[in-house]
């Protein structure tokens, strides 16, 4: 019986809040501030009553946009 990899079914992966804070290098409280204040910040995805995840692809896109903004500011 073979196993089915989630990455082959779902584009990208889901990550939990702890992984999000590690990847972005910010605190949990800063994540919640940005969810409400920064429109391009990855929004939470509720999978169940006590299960909230974030799209890894959206996190990658957000990090890329932060880098692009930095590069634009340096060029100006």
Automatic annotation (TrEMBL):
Domain of life: Bacteria
Pfam families membership: Phage_AlpA
Entry protein name: AlpA family phage regulatory protein
The species this protein was found in: Dyella acidisoli
């Amino acid at each position: 019986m073979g196993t089915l990899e989630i990455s082959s079914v779902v584009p990208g992966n889901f990550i939990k809040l702890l992984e999000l804070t590690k990847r972005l290098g910010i605190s949990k409280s800063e994540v919640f501030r940005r969810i409400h204040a920064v429109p391009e910040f990855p929004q939470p995805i509720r999978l169940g009553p006590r299960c909230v995840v974030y799209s890894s692809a959206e996190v990658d896109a957000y990090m890329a946009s932060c880098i692009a903004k930095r590069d634009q500011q340096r060029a100006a």
